[in-house]
Amino acid sequence: MIQTSKRLLSYIKYHRQRFWLGASLLTLATALELYSPMIAKQLIDQVMTPAYQTGNLNGDLLIVLLMSYFLLNLIGSLLRYNSLLLLRKMSNRIVKRMRNDLFSHMHRLPISYFDQMPSGKVVARITNDTEVLRGNFYVSVISNLLSNFIQIIGAFIALILLNRILGSAMLILIPILIIWQHLYTKYASRYNLAMREYISQISGQLNEFVQGIAVIQAFQKENQLYTEFKATVQKWFLAGRKYLLLDSLVAWGLGALLRNVTILLVITTLSAQFLGGRMALSAGILYVFIDYINRLFDPIDGFVQTITNVQQSLAAGKRIFEFADQDPESKQTTPFFIKKGAVTFSDVTFGYSDEHMILNQIDFHVSPGETVALVGHTGSGKSSILNLLFRFYDPQKGKIIIDDQEIARCNRQSVREAMAIVMQDPYLFTGTIASNIGMNRLEITDEMIKEALRQVGASELIERYDKGIHHPVVEKGNEFSSGERQLISFARALVVDPKILILDEATSHVDTETEHMIQQAMDVVKKGRTTFMIAHRLSTIKDADQIFVLDQGRIVEQGNHLHLLEQNGIYHQMYQMQAEQL
Ligand SMILES: Nc1ncnc2c1ncn2[C@@H]1O[C@H](COP(=O)(O)OP(=O)(O)OP(=O)(O)O)[C@@H](O)[C@H]1O
Q: Which PROSITE patterns does this chain map to (predicted)?
């Protein structure tokens, strides 16, 4: 908690001037407002009481005091307004910085982090949690704590100056309030944290629902997901109810009770000070005493809300820092240079977790320009080999060497830049056809993009739209067929002219005609490059120079198509089965 508060406060250092100016204005505003009951006291004791007793009204003094009261409060309001403005500006800037930092941190995290973390939770860290800090912490918490603190101290000093004994006696309120706040904080934080956790789960479920809406509807999973969603909302509701009950009881019920009892005790004590039928103190003092007691309790009531805000902010801060503290991928600086594209896997063993290995002692060598096909039953480890080659993950044991350089020792980005990958389900970004192919790299011109589209046989996409390759792409390219999305991603791979190309099951989801079109595009893209491909249809890999047959994370057969058929093993069986299905 203390650690989180310190870290949250440390962001203020970027906006020191704004903060100190805001805090000083707020202190001044609170102090000025605190002085106003003293003017009211003068008004009662020096103008109204004598006027009643003598029948003469001191008009000049009345005007001076009324004007002073008015001016004091006006200046106080203006100062408070300006200080809040400064603190809000500071808060917006801090959250802007945090969001940018978190975003850039996010894409330095290893892919394995996202395997365990639902995307909704990551989104919630960068949007909701930072928003809590913006609204609650950097404005409400800081300004309330500061002005409440000054108001409480000021009110106590004023009460002691007005009546030393009674004022000092009221210091007894301090331990009572501390115990009260302690108990409240203890129980409220439990429910508060639970509520935030459920909110985070709700946003995770929503995210999953929106992303998978097509599959959900196709498999009529709406009811099941709705039931799960309702259950989480119910948990949030129950935690919220407990929190509300506690909050109402402590914040409002007990607060009002304590305030009224204090006022009653003070009035009783003061009214006992009668001397010969006359009060020993003025009406002004009685008024000012009650006013300061109210001013003492106002921040105390507000304090409970502030504590709620502090807790919400600390919980949000804790989650943000947990995310920010995730170790980013180690950053090697050695640049990776690719000359020919020779790939060697040497005794590679790998698992997504250290306990369970998925690939075992994988050994192979691929010469520059060769086409390699990976085949095997589902879950045999084909995609995992490509994940390692592209350095989405690093192996636990063994080496992956490209052109004499061990990729695990080289800068990840430069390894990835040397290759191009065409994924099973190509992802199109919001932008245009051109930006999805050139990926906003300045060295790639419109002409190069058009040429790439022509080469993969997608000239039609250039002519179809008024804006040509600058036709907008929205919603992950839903407007395009899966074959067209595939062709766009081939053009994306082709335009960077990579030495190594990775094709993940590019033809498994399309019809025969599109497959033929994609097959032709693949032949164009593969030319002159080392290509790794996974294809479930064995007919598409007949021409591969090497075929690796995987079974339970091991290469069990290896060779070209004819060689593997002769071996009469798994490949032969798979080929026969597919031939029978045709
Ligand atoms: N991100 C991941 N985290 C944990 N385990 C994973 C992950 N990705 C894959 N696996 C596991 O690794 C094993 C091999 O998966 P892989 O995707 O490499 O197989 P594959 O041969 O490509 O299968 P398919 O043909 O179905 O795509 C599977 O048992 C799978 O459950």
A: ABC_TM1F, ABC_TRANSPORTER_1, ABC_TRANSPORTER_2
